[in-house]
Amino acid sequence: MKSFERVVLAHIQSSIPDTLYPLQYTYWPNRSTTHAIAAALHLSLSHLEDKDTYIRMLFIYYSSTFNTVIPHKLTHKLFALGLHPTLCDWLLDFLTGRPQSVRIENRTSATITTNIGTPQGCVLSPILYTLFTHDCVTSHEDIIIIKFADDTAVIGRITDGDEVAYRTEGASLVTWCEDSNLTLNTEKSKVMIVDMRKERRTLQPLFI
Fold first, then answer.
1. CATH number of the domain where residue 155 is located
2. Domain Reverse transcriptase: where (predicted)?
3. Which of 39, 58, 159, 193 is least enclosed by beta carbons within 10 angstroms?
4. 20: domain range?
5. CA distance 13 to 24
6. Is-contact 108 50, C-beta < 8 A?
7. 201 in a domain, yes or no?
């Protein structure tokens, strides 16, 4: 089955443009964690060159991302990206009605049927998750989202203390997660502020 999945993977990769989302740094050729970190540092440092600005970084942690992908929402997005309807139907069939059980030594649990998620260890799961989240983008030029698989960083330049756009993007991200059935782990998500201004000011926390 994995051999066939690799054939499907190659077909998907050939059907999706490399420019689909340039700030996703995993599961694409010639991209790595190093590139993601370098992009984040470059964007942050270039922003800090401007007068009276500082950087807000929100590092998002999701809970059980691969296990919560809704197959019919995924295939709808894939169809919108231009994948052939027959391939979308095959992927929907591949991801639904899957029998699962747990085996420990010589004991096996009862079998259940699942209709949600992309299987861990599956050849197709990484790229399917990446394409499922490709539409998680910002609408403000001073705010970007850098992704590496399910690791997500929202980086924004704040000018003159005006955080309205950044907080709006944060609220939009929460809404997108709810619509996509992805759960934000607020305990593990972190905020970092990079402020090189001489005058220290109290900044309001960000709630998600």
1. 3.30.70
2. 1-208
3. 193
4. 2-95+114-194
5. 14
6. no
7. no
